Amino acid sequence: xKYKLILTLILSTVxxxxxxxxxxxxxxxQRYVTLANSINPSYSNASSVEGKVFFNRKFKLANGKEIACxxxxxxxxxxVGKNIVTGKSIQPLSPIxxxxxxxxxxxxxxxxxKHCNDILGTDCLPSEKANFIAYLLTEYTPTK
Length: 144
Ligand code: HEC
What we know:
Elements: H1 2-18, H2 20-39, H3 48-56, E1 59-60, E2 66-67, H4 69-73, E3 81-82, E4 89-90, H5 105-120, H6 126-136
Antiparallel strand pairs: 1-2, 3-4
Bound molecules: heme C (HEC).
């Protein structure tokens, strides 16, 4: 009995990894929704529409420059982006066009926080993160 449980666990891990791309993104979105909901009980669902607004919103940096997530990641997260600072290309953020995204959730959470601090000067709200992931999951088609 115990043996069978272990085997089931191993098998489900394999199955999980095979579809880690979207499944993991959805899991992380849910994690942020739960967090956001504990802060603001009226927030119960991630909004891809809000996520899109957030992605394109311009934030003022300390040096006065305005920058949006879209400045480097382009207005379509399914596209290959370009770092406006280094000029290097950035693989698509969308877990649908780039299956490597969201494979390691702990890493993504760390990167996300670091990133928000760089751009907004503070961490993003859990609701902003949930909305952002919801938006990523709606962009299937690269435009170039
Ligand atoms: C100055 C350019 C730049 C801007 C602006 C920018 N990013 Fe990024 N972003 C990067 C680079 C570079 C990487 C790392 C390269 C990679 O993972 O391919 C990255 C990676 C990420 C990841 C990767 C997570 C992972 O490890 O799979 C997420 C999520 C992300 N950015 C979200 C955002 C959000 C949200 C904003 C707006 C608040 C934003 N980015 C603005 C350049 C930028």
